[in-house]
Backbone:
């Protein structure tokens, strides 16, 4: 087999076909820039770059931001004023916010919301107004630009935000102190009504994404089965994935969903979804579903597995051990890509070590080939 | 209504996650002269025990655990004013925090609620708590247990920093240290010298109860 480009490897594996080497790539926004990144890319590491295909326009909603001191700490308060009232959120931003990727800090941490948009039952009506007066307008320039720049070095995905119920759970109501669960139990009608409004407003966004020049549509959903239990997943998440997948498939796109948490409890339900790529699956010790079991259970899906930060914390030797064990578990290595990290920055030492293990992972993987890789590193 | 019926109803309101019933029945029970301690222990705490069993069997999930604890809080708001001061038995004291740089608090919040339900006094320092503040709290409150949580691998080393600071302050031998958080592995917990890494909130609380219960 002729050597494939990094992009061909990822796309071919994602299409469930055999490739020459196990595809491995870094996520652009978590990737360091410098000699190690260059060396690892020269040794086969690809790059995945997520960009949106739309811009957001709000009508009849005034958005303002101010800096305040709350409990002795600086916060950024963003206020949404509408004819039916105002809501606000407070954010704390670590050093470097706005100077790294998006609002990520130097340490690659997103701003912390210390106050969520929804605090009281009255806030639902205001947020519903905001949602219903939000328009998604196609803008394919960011994706076209990234594709042009990246070329065959990797993949550009079309980034979609948390889907409606996850938006409420993680972003707008928030899970601090179990707030989302408590609201869902105490005010089910308000939660459901807002969920439906968000779902309606998102439909044009899905169509824009499906028609974009990106290779794959990627929903950054951060699924964790401990938070999103099977009942919630089945009722609110699966219908949304069906909606997304239908339009993506109609336009020849694959749908990837970010599921980086403990998904063991959802594994059978995930099988039933039309998602093409389970992205960021974290096997133990960080997640609870072994990669071998996931591959054998989800036979019509591809897995992009996230290398666990819990292992990186233990250093390059632990990284090597975990990577070799991972290869042994996935023999022959089909329907799989390795993401160097889906959450935080990776140290130079760990990135080099992981690349050293993966650069020679020719498919089909065999025990002998993996033993040979191990010997070459000792 | 007989006392037993109030207790059964209180228990049921917790298991059924029923905010309205717990408040209504707790009020009626207090007005009918039911011993508030029985209302708590044989009513609501018994309900929480059933919720815990259902959680362990996979019938209930984290959402139910959280909501049940919240329902119990509403019930306690009614019953607590009827409790007399004397005889309040504390099982143990816990200082708990999400370590510096980390603002996640769902897991810590659940553990805190469950510890309180089980009779612990909990000093919850909140999120993004600096090591020095944890040590100061340990010095001030003299707890039996220090609990730390982290959801970011980036902040996990802070847990080791706290344990080292406990040693430097000569407090390490006086407290048990328990860790929680998705990325916190057993291997990591052992490597920094913690006493336990909780698999989930219930298991962590069980371990705390075990530590403070005389053998």
Residues:
């Amino acid at each position: 087999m002729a050597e494939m480009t990094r992009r061909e490897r990822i796309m071919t594996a994602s299409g469930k076909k055999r490739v020459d080497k196990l595809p491995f790539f870094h996520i652009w926004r978590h990737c360091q820039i410098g000699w190690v990144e260059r060396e690892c890319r020269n040794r086969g590491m690809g790059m995945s770059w997520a960009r949106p295909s739309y811009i957001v326009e709000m009508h009849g909603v005034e958005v303002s931001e101010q800096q305040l001191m709350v409990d002795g700490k600086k916060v950024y308060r963003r206020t949404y004023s509408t004819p039916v009232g105002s809501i606000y959120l407070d954010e704390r931003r670590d050093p470097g916010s706005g100077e790294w990727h998006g609002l990520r800090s130097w340490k690659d941490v997103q701003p912390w919301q210390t106050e969520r948009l929804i605090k009281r039952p009255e806030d639902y009506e205001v947020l519903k107004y905001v949602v219903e007066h939000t328009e998604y307008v196609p803008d394919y320039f960011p994706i076209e630009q990234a594709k042009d720049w990246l070329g065959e070095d990797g993949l550009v995905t079309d980034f979609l935000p948390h889907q409606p119920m996850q938006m409420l759970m993680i972003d707008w109501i928030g899970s601090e102190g179990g707030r989302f669960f408590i609201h869902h139990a105490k005010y089910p009608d308000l939660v459901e009504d807002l969920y439906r409004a968000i779902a309606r407003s998102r439909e044009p966004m899905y169509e824009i994404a499906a028609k974009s020049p990106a290779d794959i549509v990627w929903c950054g959903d951060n699924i964790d089965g401990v938070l999103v239990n099977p009942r919630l997943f089945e009722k609110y998440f699966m219908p949304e994935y069906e909606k997304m997948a239908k339009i993506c498939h109609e336009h020849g796109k694959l749908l990837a969903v970010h599921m980086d948490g403990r998904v063991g409890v959802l594994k059978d339900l995930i099988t039933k979804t039309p998602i093409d790529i389970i992205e960021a699956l974290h096997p133990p010790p960080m997640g609870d579903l072994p990669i071998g079991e996931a591959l054998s259970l989800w036979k019509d899906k591809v897995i992009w597995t996230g290398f666990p930060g819990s292992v990186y914390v233990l250093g390059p030797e632990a990284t090597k051990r975990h990577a070799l064990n991972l290869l042994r578990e996935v023999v022959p290595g089909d329907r799989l890509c390795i993401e160097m990290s889906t959450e935080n920055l990776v140290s130079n030492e760990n990135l080099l070590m992981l690349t050293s293990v993966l650069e020679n992972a020719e498919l089909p993987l065999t025990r002998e080939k993996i033993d040979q890789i191990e010997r070459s590193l000792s | 209504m007989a006392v037993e019926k109030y207790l059964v109803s209180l228990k049921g309101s917790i298991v059924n996650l029923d905010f309205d019933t717990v408040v209504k029945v707790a009020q009626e029970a207090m007005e009918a002269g039911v011993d508030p301690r029985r209302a708590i222990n044989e009513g609501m705490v018994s309900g929480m025990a059933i919720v815990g069993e259902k959680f362990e069997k996979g019938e209930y999930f984290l959402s139910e655990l959280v909501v049940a604890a919240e329902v119990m809080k509403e019930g306690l708001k009614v019953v607590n004013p009827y409790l007399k001061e004397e005889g309040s038995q504390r099982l143990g004291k816990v200082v708990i925090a999400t370590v510096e740089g980390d603002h996640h608090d769902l897991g810590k919040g659940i553990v805190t609620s469950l510890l309180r339900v089980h009779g612990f006094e909990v000093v919850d320092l909140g999120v993004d708590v600096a090591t020095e503040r944890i040590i100061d709290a340990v010095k001030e409150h003299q707890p039996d247990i220090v609990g730390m949580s982290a959801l970011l691998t980036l902040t996990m080393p802070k847990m080791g920093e706290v344990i080292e600071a406990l040693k430097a302050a000569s407090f390490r031998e006086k407290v048990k240290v328990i860790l929680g958080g998705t990325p916190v592995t057993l291997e990591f917990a052992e490597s920094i010298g913690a006493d336990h890494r909780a698999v989930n909130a219930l298991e962590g609380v069980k371990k705390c109860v075990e530590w403070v219960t005389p053998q």
